[in-house]
Design a protein that fits this description.
Blueprint: H1 14-29, H2 31-34, H3 41-56, H4 62-78, H5 95-105, H6 108-130, H7 145-152, H8 159-245, H9 251-277, H10 292-301, E1 305-311, H11 319-339, E2 345-351, E3 356-364, H12 375-386, E4 390-395, E5 400-408, H13 411-420
Parallel strand pairs: 1-2
Antiparallel strand pairs: 2-3, 3-5, 4-5
GO cellular component, one term: membrane
InterPro entries: HATPase_C_sf, Sensor_HK_TwoCompSys, Sig_transdc_His_kin_sub3_dim/P
EC number: 2.7.13.3
């Protein structure tokens, strides 16, 4: 498929400027001769305007420019007052620039049609400049004074030789302009092909980097799976083994060991789903807001005093947003279990009274550890950003570690979720 070449941005105004200058300059140059035309200056100035217009549009609309040049030449053949005289015949020369643009920027069909058509136009111009019947007072435009004197003295006017020489020159100039356009066309195609090749190389390099990164992630995921799966399995086994074999354990200790074993098994299941199957869990496997109570119960079973509050009427969240909220709460409670004071109480609050979900998790901060930034806080912030919101984590004036997040609920998401529901 051959695409129509486009002129460079820096040259896009060159043809309109050249066409405008052509009209203005030739109008000024021929101002004293236009009024002598038999049909008035309007007919005499039409070829200048039409040729200037064809030059102006030769880059943008090459086919129209080629047709307009031919139409003007036909008019000059038919209308004597529209023909160029001894002083204005060089006005044909700037048309070579229009032929150059037509060859360079025309479509595939226009480009090849313009070659024979340009030759035909050159012959028509030669006819207008050499044949007696097309010249002023039946004299051709291009003639020598000696030839005119010889003709007046009874000699013959060598019109055949002059016509042949004019055709060779005119056709040669038109062909040269077309070949120059062809050269620019080929250079443009080579440059475009080189640019596409460079873009393809960059894309291939980017794909190669992505493949390397994916390979490294796959290896890392396998290592994480091996290490964490073994650790979680050992934790669950030891918790269950201790609970079942030691009859002297208090009921609260047994409940704690049971919670430890269940949590380890749940973590092992999620880890296998995440690393072994696919990074994107199925919708039925994704944790939802309704799973928060089970998460809070496990945390309470681990010995952390945790309170839950919800204000306002809940709004539908997308599965990704629900997963993000669940993971944020899960990470915050994990940090609370690791760093909070043993006698402190953690509060999880969901507030739906705004345009979205405002999430607040307050944990009494210990003197060490809880406020240091790490992967957990960065992970929660990334989760909030994925859900379209934001998250902050800091210690307030009351020495409590506050995780504050906001998840927006826009109208298209709400309608989509309700439609699915």
């Amino acid at each position: 498929m051959d695409l129509k070449p486009s002129p460079p941005n820096r040259l896009v105004l060159l043809a309109p400027a050249a066409g405008t200058a052509y009209i203005v300059l030739w109008w000024i140059a021929e101002a004293g001769h236009l009024g002598n035309a038999p049909l008035g200056p309007i007919v005499a100035v039409v070829p200048f305007i039409a040729f200037g217009l064809s030059i102006a549009i030769s880059q943008r609309w090459p086919a129209a420019a080629l047709g307009l040049i031919g139409a003007v030449l036909v008019v000059q053949l038919l209308v004597e007052s529209a023909r160029f005289g001894n002083t204005s015949w060089p006005a044909y020369l700037p048309l070579l620039y229009a032929l150059f643009n037509i060859s360079a920027f025309g479509s595939h069909v226009v480009h090849w049609i313009s070659l024979p058509v340009s030759g035909l136009y050159a012959v028509i111009v030669t006819v207008l400049l050499t044949l007696r019947s097309f010249g002023a007072a039946e004299w051709p435009v291009l003639y020598s004074p000696q030839a005119a004197r010889d003709y007046q003295n009874g000699g013959e006017f060598e019109v055949v030789g002059m016509f042949a020489a004019g055709c060779v020159i005119a056709v040669g100039l038109a062909t040269g302009a077309w070949c120059a356009g062809l050269a620019l066309r080929m250079v443009t195609k080579v440059y475009s092909a080189r640019r596409h090749a460079q873009a393809l190389e960059r894309d291939l390099a980017a794909v190669e980097d992505e493949l390397v990164a994916l390979s490294e992630r796959e290896q890392l995921a396998q290592e994480v799976h091996d290490v964490m799966a073994h650790s979680l399995a050992v934790i669950a086994a030891q918790a269950d083994g201790t609970r079942m074999t030691d009859d002297s354990l208090a009921p609260s200790t047994r409940n704690a060991l049971s919670t430890i074993a269940d949590t380890a098994r749940d973590g092992l299941t999620e880890l296998r789903q995440l690393l072994d199957s696919s990074p994107l869990l199925g919708e039925a496997e994704r944790p939802k807001l309704t799973d928060l109570q089970a998460l809070l119960d496990r945390v309470r079973g681990a010995g952390l005093d945790c309170e839950y509050a919800e204000h306002g009427e809940s709004k539908p969240l997308s599965p990704i947003q629900q997963l993000s909220v669940f993971r944020i709460v899960q990470e915050a409670l994990t940090n609370a279990v690791r760093h909070a004071d043993t006698d402190g109480s953690t509060t999880v609050t969901l507030d739906w009274r705004g345009p979205g979900l405002a999430l607040l998790i307050a944990t009494p901060a210990s003197a060490t550890g809880a406020t240091r930034p790490g992967r957990g806080i960065r992970g929660m912030q990334e989760r909030a950003q994925i859900a379209g919101g934001w998250l902050t984590a800091a210690v307030d004036e009351g020495d409590a570690f506050i995780v504050n997040a906001y998840i927006p609920v826009d109208e298209p998401t709400r309608l989509a979720v309700e439609a699915v529901a």
